[in-house]
Amino acid sequence: MSKELHELTQNGIIFDMKPDAIPYNYRISYKVSLLCMILKMCGGRRGCSLVKIHILFSVLENDKELGDLRKFIHQHGKMDLCVHFNPSVNRALEYSMAYKLVTQQVNGRYKLLPKGRLLVDKIMRDYCLLMEEKNVLDDISINLTEEMISEMHERWQILNDED
User: Fold this and answer.
1) For residues 99-126, average pLDDT
2) Is residue 115 part of a domain?
3) Domain for residue 13, yes or no?
């Protein structure tokens, strides 16, 4: 041990390895909160499809994806959109259902439960919390319809049938 290090440890300064912090966007609590916000702000009365959930998570993480989604909406779904299926989003869905924040309906879509609505209400009341995410979801909200996603899905099936 060097002389300087010995003096520091004598004065009560400790050098221990600390675990690396997990970035906020990898934390399950962040993903669950976003999922609940997506369902509340963009889900509508009939709920939200898995594809729509994955699209919205992608645009919240990537500005290029957000630009592509805005073009898709502007063209009323007449172009194709690249959809990234992220396993952490599926995990957030599982946690949300286990904690009774979200349910999957008979039609396969996901819907927010009262406990999930309460979480979103708390998030919305705090103006400093998730500001950018709130703005993006508010901007998109009802403009990305399930019908647009269904039409795109049908085009995918036609293209894949031809191959």
Assistant:
1) 95
2) yes
3) no
For residue 146, the surrounding DSSP H or E stretch is helix 146-162
pTM of the model: 0.80
Q: For the residues of 54-82, what is the DSSP string, one character each?
A: HHHHHHHH-HHHHHHHHHHHHTTT-S---
Q: How far, rounded to the nearest angstrom, does the alpha carbon of residue 125 sit from its chain's CA centroid?
A: 19
How far is residue 134 from each of residues 21, 51, 130, measured CA to CA in Å? 25, 20, 6
Per the structure, the count of domains in the chain is 1
**52-73, pLDDT tens digit by residue?**
999 999 999 988 888 888 888 8
Q: Is residue 10 part of a domain?
A: no
Contacts 24+ apart (CB under 8 A), 67-70: 69/140, 69/144
Residues 68/81, Cβ–Cβ less than 8 Å: yes
Here the CATH number for the domain that contains residue 81 is: 1.10.10
Report CA 148 to chain centroid distance, whole Å.
19
Looking at the domain assignment, is residue 143 inside a domain? no
Q: In this structure, what token pair is assigned to residue 161?
A: 């049938």
Long-range contacts formed by 70-73: CB under 8 A, 24+ apart: 72/144, 72/148, 73/140, 73/143, 73/144, 73/148
Say yes or no to pLDDT of 118 above 90: yes
| Percentage with pLDDT > 70 across the chain | 85
